[in-house]
Design a protein that fits this description.
Blueprint (H helix, E strand, L loop, with lengths): L14 H18 L6 E4 L8 E4 L4 E15 L4 E7 L7 E8 L4 H4 L1 E8 L3 E8 L3 E13 L3
Antiparallel strand pairs: 1-2, 3-8, 4-7, 5-8, 6-7
Length: 146
């Protein structure tokens, strides 16, 4: 099993790095699951009853969403957006803003995840500084395929 380098704070996560994480997770899963039954137990919440499901490999889905394209934004403005996909259970979602324009208003953007289901993630980009900005959000989703 390889030891993955720890990303620097604020470093965008790319598909190659996420692929390394998923590969190592799959290696750990394959080494720890019983081989005779080839099943794993999943709990969707601490109070839910455990479910037994066939072992499946995780899939990575990525999308780039444009939240501002040479647009004028105001300080405190929030721009909600959805990413649609199809997984068996709610997946892991990671979002990183990308300041394509290099402007000050594009530098101070945060993205938070509002809700995640097995078919959709609702995210919000929030601008801390007003001005003209071109900002994309790189969204990576890791989950069990449907």
């Amino acid at each position: 099993m390889a030891i993955l380098p720890t990303p620097q704070r604020g470093q965008p996560l790319d598909v190659s790095y996420i692929n390394s994480i998923v590969t190592e997770l799959n290696n750990v899963i394959s080494q720890t699951l019983p081989t005779a039954s080839n099943v794993t137990t999943i709990k969707s919440s601490p109070t839910a009853a455990p479910q037994t499901t066939p072992t499946l490999k995780a899939q990575i889905y990525g999308e780039v969403y444009s939240v501002a394209s040479a647009s004028t934004v105001t300080a405190g403005e929030e721009k909600p957006f959805d990413i649609n996909f199809n997984f068996r259970y709610p997946p892991i979602v990671v979002a990183t803003p990308w300041n394509k324009s290099g402007t000050d208003s594009g530098k101070n953007v945060s993205v938070y995840i509002n809700n995640v289901t097995s078919s959709k993630a609702t995210l919000v980009a929030k601008f801390a500084t007003g001005g003209v900005a071109t900002v994309d959000v790189n969204v990576l989703i890791i989950g069990i395929p449907n």
